[in-house]
Amino acid sequence: MSTLSNEQLKEVVKETYTKVADQSKEENESSCCGSGCGCGPLDEAIMAEDYSTLPGYIKDADLGLGCGLPTQFAMINEGDTVVDLGSGAGNDAFVARRYTGFLGKVIGVDFTEKMIERARANAEKLEYNNVEFRYGDIEALPINDNTAHVVVSNCVLNLVPDKHKAFSETFRILRKGGHFSVSDIVLEGGELPTKAKQAAELYAGCVSGAINKDEYLSIIHNAGFENVKIQKEREIIIPDEILRANLSESEMKEIKDKNIRVLSINVYAEKPTSKTQKSKKEECCGVDSNCC
Fold first, then answer.
1. What confidence category does residue 197 fall into, taking pLDDT thresholds of 50, 70 and 90?
2. Which of 30, 96, 97, 142 counts the highest number of beta carbons within 10 A?
3. Are 192 and 164 in contact (CB under 8 A)?
4. Contact yes or no for 224/248 (Cβ under 8 A)
5. Residue among 61, 14, 2 nearest 160 (CA)
6. How many helices and strands, by DSSP H and E, does the chain display?
7. What percent of the chain is helix, strand and coil (3-state, nearest 5)?
């Protein structure tokens, strides 16, 4: 099996979530693992948490995606500008709006056109004038520097091939003293077998794009963030039938023998207020961006 390039991985994600955008939460959950026995993505029925009790919840925007409740932990204040990375049909964006109030603003970013269309239709139906959705790539966000007080994201950053760019862009768009709260999938106990990493279905389902938890947190630190902490953690059990569809019995045994765990974590971090604060890369490299 050949290794997929970053652009090919992005196309896998876009194709998968374009299909999901046309479905309801119930349709996603009634299939074997999400979008209709292909299988993929995995996160709807297996990883998602219940949003229905959160203030601002809009059922039409909930496609059953995600692996956590980042807006619940995001400490959003009235009047804040919030950016939702991988905003889908608008689920987290609309919950965030409940906290920002009329004085705040919410910007959702997604690179699946169908998701943007659905999110905009939801916002128009609800007559939300302070929520907007922009088409764009998380590795090159269509947002100005120092815009957001808060950034949220739900099970999306692990789908971005270049996580260093993703967190660098998050750092760029946050104001000094701003913070993020993101839910994501990480691993403990070792790396997945090579075939699992290359499986398109597992990638679109947020599994094979996951990296080791310590490496994930290190990327956040190296982007320049401080006060990095895990707000919530829980184990995700991937059913054997899904693994079996993508892996051999020996590869499944390898995962179990190594006790490789798939975790959903909610991570919080802050952009320093000091103007002299430098990222780890700047500290060791100075102006030479290629030395690290």
1. low
2. 96
3. no
4. no
5. 14
6. 13, 7
7. 40, 20, 40
Is 67 in contact with 154 (CB distance < 8 Å)? yes
DSSP state of 212: B
- Structure confidence at residue 39 as a pLDDT band (50, 70, 90): very low
Helix (H) or strand (E) holding 119: helix 113-126
Domains of the chain listed by start with CATH number: 6-285 (3.40.50.150)
Helix H or strand E segment including 118: helix 113-126
Q: Which two tokens stand for residue 283?
A: 């500290």
* pLDDT, mean of residues 83-105: 97
Half-sphere exposure in the Cβ direction for 202 (13 Å, CA):
24
Confirm if 44 and 29 have CB atoms less than 8 A apart.
yes
Enter the tokens of residue 47: 């990883």
Contact (Cβ atoms closer than 8 angstroms) between residue 102 and residue 129 = no
Which is nearest to 163 in space by CA: 184, 148, 187, 134? 184
- Distances in Å between the Cα of 158 and the Cα atoms of 70, 83, 104, 164, 176 are 15, 17, 28, 11, 25
User: Which one is predicted more confidently, 28 or 14?
Assistant: 14
CA 80, CA 64: separation in Å to the nearest integer? 26
CB-based contact 8:24 (threshold 8 Å): no
Cis peptide before 41 (omega within 30 of 0): yes
